[in-house]
Each structure stands twice: as C-alpha cells, then as structure tokens.
Amino acid sequence: MRTLTVVLAVAGLGLMPASALADDGATVLVGTFKRVGPTTGTTDATFGRAGLVDGRVRNRLRVGVHDLAPHTRYVYRLRQARVACDPAAPGVDVPDWRYRARGVLATDRFGAARGAARSRNFTVQNGVAYYVGVYAVTPTGTPGRLVVCAALRPLPSPTATDETRDADQRPVAPAPRGADRPDPTSPPADRPAKEMPRERQPA
Fold first, then answer.
1. pLDDT digits over 153-180, tens only?
2. Helix, strand, coil % over all residues of the chain, rounded to 5
3. What is the pLDDT of residues 89-126, one digit of tens each?
4. Burial, 78: exposed, middle or buried (Cβ in 10 Å; 0-12, 13-18, 19+)?
5. By C-alpha distance, which of 34, 37, 133, 43 is closest to 88?
6. Which of 35, 122, 138, 179 has its CA at a distance of 20 to 30 angstroms from the CA of residue 195?
C-alpha cells in the first residue's frame, strides 16, 4: 500500500512530456528532491519531484514529496539564486506566485504530500538557477530549516534524447553486395592448390 501511495503522489505532479508542450511553446523545468548538507545514510536518496512549466498564458508549479516525516507540516517555495540548493546562499522567493494552501505541505502517515502553485507573470531567465525548497515550519508559520531541495533543470526534448539513446546498439551498415563472395581466382580454403604438371625431361 505504501508503494501505491508513493507512486500516486509522484504521478500526481501532472508533468506533461516535452512533446505534448511543444505546440504551446512552453519551457519545462524538472527536478528531484534531495537532502541538502550533512545527512545520515545515503546521499542518493530521493524524496519526490517538482515540475515547473513556463507557458504562454499560465505558469504552473507541481510538487510531490514522499518519505518525509509522517503527519508533519512543511512549507515549500519556488526560489531563484546563482547556485541552486546552496545552504550558504539561500536565494530569494520568485515573486507573483500563488500557492495552493498557502504553500503548506501536510504529509500523510507515509510522509507523502502534494502541492501546486500558479503565476501569470513569470518567464524563465537565462543565467538564473531555479529550485524548489521544502522547509520546516517555524512557530510563526514561515519557512525555517531547509529539509529537501529540488534543483530545476530543462527537460530534454524527445528528439535530443532519441539521437543520443542506444548509440552503441545501432545496426551496423551492411557490407557491399558481393563482398562476402570468395574470389574465384583463389583456391578454396579447405582444398590444396592444384599442382601444375611437370615438364618431361628427354631420356
């Protein structure tokens, strides 16, 4: 049951493939939540995903987390900085975003939760690192300690992915026609060359 809940939480992000958004001219950024700073256990553990869509009319953010503390309230924010998910340089909130439930994530007994936000005045800027931070809630209800963070990066297009996928498994070009036929002037490999008759010497 836990596996099903986690799968549903991640699937609920509603991230559309790049091919489906190509006609809309949208920019898609995605990221995986990971712990920041010193941690106990493996550093490769993931805690959900985040997706940001910069569309022509509306911009939307989808957040899905899992394996956090059960029955706990967190706050998530879309932020920008020169380096994403750097505790020494936390960056600033991206303005003009409206968060569902005021950006509060209330986890279930499995530590899973989902969130969303919308904006009408947002455009992805070059040279800016975007990330979604999930924070512990302070007594005043503001973001506190950074718990997990997802650095957002462009979603590869299907064309670019197909060109670089399974490069070493592509079929080898066939040999020219007749290249595998034996040379008629050379003897077969399993038969010795025929000896030429010797010239008879006069007695």
1. 998 765 544 443 444 344 444 445 555 5
2. 15, 30, 55
3. 888 999 999 999 999 999 999 999 999 999 999 999 99
4. buried
5. 37
6. 179
The structure tokens listed for 200 are 């008879």
State which residues form the domain around 56.
2-15+23-157
Report the chain's C-alpha Rg in angstroms.
31
The CATH number given to whatever domain includes residue 34 is 2.60.40.200
User: pTM score, two decimals?
Assistant: 0.66
Query: Which single residue is written with the structure tokens 């302070």?
Result: 138
User: Would residue 124 count as lying in a domain?
Assistant: yes
Closest CA to 134 of 88, 59, 69, 89: 69
In three-state secondary structure terms, 3 is helix
